[in-house]
Design brief:
243 residues, alpha+beta, Hormone Receptor, Insulin-like Growth Factor Receptor 1, Chain A domain 2, TSP-1 type 1 repeat, 3-stranded antiparallel beta sheet, two-stranded antiparallel ribbon, 1 helix, 17 strands
């Protein structure tokens, strides 16, 4: 260490020198040596850089190097992330995962092998042929199941998710769509015709009742006049006195 030690340092240093940089750090900061060419310079950081782990001591907090295959570590013997080409398993960086585990190239970890899982089979579908359930005697029925868990790279693959088998049913005729439509149209026309007939009959009935009512009213008005005229004619008629 260069004897020229300064107390007025920058960058979190408690003590420093022009030649070696930081010699000690302020509280809660970590001291680490950075190599620049053939020279090492002391620096003070709030957290340790990649490839180092921090250790706190009563007098100083230091950053120490992880193992060569670790990218980050918790302690020297416990890695939290491996360098390229290695897989993390239980704090260690391995080139090949142990038996019963597989390498996950996405997380670069050794993980458990996952096998495919499926649901139970559904009930068999109705017997069908060419999408229809009528017009045939021999057809097919199917059943399906769902995939609940997709397998990992080395896991057991998923089995078939559908099955089909032959089936026999009692033959029944299919109703033709055109004929059914024609029958419905005829029924609708007949219904409209019946309704029109009933409407005309009701109209005629109402007209007849109205005519009868008007006739009675006219009769009630003209009857007294007819009787009065008849009485007057009888009064004016000559009296036969020959007898």
């Amino acid at each position: 260490v260069h004897p020229n030690v300064s107390q007025g340092c920058q960058g979190g240093c408690a003590t420093c020198s022009d030649y070696n940089g930081c010699l000690s750090c302020k509280p809660r900061l970590f001291f680490v040596l950075e190599r620049i060419g053939m020279k090492q310079i002391g620096v003070c950081l709030s957290s340790c850089p990649s490839g180092y782990y921090g250790t706190r001591y009563p007098d100083i907090n230091k950053c120490a190097k992880c193992k060569a295959d670790c990218d980050t570590c918790f302690t020297r013997n416990f890695c939290t992330k491996c360098k390229s080409g290695f897989y993390l398993y239980s704090g260690k960086c391995l080139e090949k995962c142990p038996d019963g585990l597989e390498a996950n190239n996405h997380t670069m970890e050794c993980t458990s092998i996952v096998h495919c899982e499926t649901s139970e089979w559904s009930p068999w579908s109705p017997c069908m042929k060419k999408g229809k359930t009528c017009g045939f005697k021999r057809g097919n029925e199917v059943r399906v199941r769902e995939i609940l868990q997709h397998p990992s790279t080395r896991g057991d693959p998923c089995p078939a998710t559908s099955e089909s088998r032959k089936c026999i049913v009692q033959r029944k005729r299919c109703q033709k769509e055109g004929k059914g439509k024609k029958n419905r149209e005829e029924k609708r026309k007949k219904s409209n015709k019946d309704e029109s007939k009933e409407t005309r009959q009701e109209s005629k009935g109402r007209a007849a009742r109205r005519q009868n009512r008007e006739q009675r009213e006219n009769n009630s008005k003209t009857q007294p006049k007819k009787r009065k005229a008849l009485n007057k004619e009888q009064d004016l008629a000559p009296v036969d006195t020959a007898h």
